[in-house]
């Protein structure tokens, strides 16, 4: 009986494991192999060991790479505060079951099902300095020269806000599911003891939402470190303006396949970036999951 059950487990897990090997493990191993060779365009040459990693961490790549990594970290912080903070607030509002709750729940989640490329192009059009409707409203309100995508000081923040608009429905539903899973007896007992709504939210609801926070934090971390589609669509492969929206994934793409301003490619250094990305995502997710799950138990 035990052997038969294990056999069924293998049968059901095999397709997922096969997909993981093909689309995750094998590309990671291949990228590590590519990073250990020198390349001329897309032609592999001699074995150079860790030379591509040394090049990445020295002139002329180091400053661009560290700046791109900084942008990824800022994106993670910004999305945690804006996207997930707003998602928690919306989830709490929906948990209170306002009128037309089903309508609001569908409306909040609707942007998530839209193509990220379509969302990027639409918001780029909305923020166009000449014909964008948001730009025109800003000008009518007295804000002259409103062009956040062209301002290095605001471009990254603008992308973070657009990304938050697109994804906020996902943490909202995750938090809402977590709130609905908490027994009402806990809330009633706290209110009978004289707890205010803020105390119920802070001391009962938030600790019991720890599993939902674990899921959201890990997924936000992975998405922020691998951030590519939206910056590529809205700011271009060079992370315009002036590299203010550059990310590690954009730098990888630029070095591997070239850009309008860079006709040449450097596959070896690009592969080194992909290996570092894989390590950061893998190690960071593992450590974060272990720590957050331990916190769940402590709470």
UniProtKB/TrEMBL annotation:
Membrane-spanning residues: 73-95, 107-126, 164-183, 204-225, 267-292
SUPFAM superfamilies xref list:
MetI-like
Keywords, in A-Z order: Cell membrane, Membrane, Transmembrane, Transmembrane helix, Transport
Cell compartment(s), UniProt: Cell membrane
* Major localization listed first in the record, in broad terms: membrane
Q: What are the BP-aspect GO terms?
A: transmembrane transport
Q: Which GO terms describe its cellular component?
A: plasma membrane
Identify the InterPro entries for this entry.
ABC_transporter_permease, MetI-like, MetI-like_sf
- Give all residue intervals belonging to the ABC transmembrane type-1 domain: 69-288
What topology in the membrane does the UniProt record assign?
A: Multi-pass membrane protein
Q: Which family does it belong to?
A: Belongs to the binding-protein-dependent transport system permease family.
What name does UniProt use for this protein? Sugar ABC transporter permease
Say which species the protein is native to: Meiothermus hypogaeus NBRC 106114
Source organism lineage? Bacteria, Thermotogati, Deinococcota, Deinococci, Thermales
